[in-house]
Specification:
The chain is of the alpha/beta class and 227 residues long. The protein contains eight helices and eight strands, in the order βαβααβααββααβββα. The chain is globular.
């Protein structure tokens, strides 16, 4: 199956000088889990072109999966020229996955092209996944019937407590946990920075980077039912 992974273009936290980007572990683990199973993965970003990793996520000295992903020349070429969402035909994909990193909370919610693409894939019985701040895509995402996609559904994302612990609660435009709850989502979480994945039919969400492997496995398992 063809799967689309969406990564942030954002490189700064708000108006600060703090750097951000996509979180390396959150893309590397799902990528290889899905690729080993024979799925084809394309990379997309809100603005297209290059995406860069959050410097914090580059601490990969002992993680073979992250090393394999980051030091792969072919992979870096793809990440330097991601697809713009307006150039994507939703019917070409069986699933769309939103990767975290703090930058996602700025550029995912405002992108109409991504909202339309996700709605079309979901309503065409495709899979929608999001990990950590990738769940920011749901902040403004409505279905054709006018309801928020996550209304009444079980979801997870980077928690308010985790945001406070990394001292970004006054920098991010909104607290993601609070936002998703306000839209009617049934939110759940584990302890801070512990793995947690929530599954609600064709909607798979994960709390944080520690959930990356379990997130990839949950996506793979659900895709089996789309055949």
């Amino acid at each position: 199956m063809n799967i689309l992974m969406v990564l942030t273009n954002r490189t700064k936290l708000g108006e600060t000088d703090k750097k951000t980007g996509y979180f390396l572990k959150e893309v590397a683990y799902p990528y290889y889990i899905l690729k080993r199973a024979g799925h084809k993965i394309d990379f997309c970003s809100p603005s297209g072109f290059r995406v860069t990793p959050d410097p914090i996520s580059l601490n990969y000295d002992k993680d073979e999966i992250i090393i394999k992903f980051f030091k792969n020349n072919e992979m870096q070429k793809k990440l330097s020229s991601t697809i713009h969402p307006r150039n994507i035909v939703s019917s070409d994909y069986s699933g769309i996955i939103f990767i975290g990193g703090h930058g996602s909370i700025w550029d995912f919610p405002k992108n109409i092209n991504l909202q339309n693409l996700t709605r079309e894939i979901y309503e065409n019985l495709g899979l929608v996944g999001a990990i950590c701040h990738g769940s920011a895509i749901f902040a403004n995402l409505k279905l054709s019937n006018g309801n928020y996609l996550i209304s009444g559904k079980k979801v997870s994302c980077f928690s308010n407590e985790e945001e406070r612990q990394v001292q970004n609660e006054n920098i991010v435009p909104f607290l993601l946990e609070t936002k998703l709850k306000s839209l009617g989502a049934v939110y759940s979480k584990a302890e801070n920075f512990e793995p947690h994945v929530e599954k609600d039919n064709r909607l798979i969400t994960a709390q944080n980077a520690s959930s990356s492997e379990k997130f990839g496995e949950a996506l793979l398992e659900r895709l089996k039912y789309l055949n």
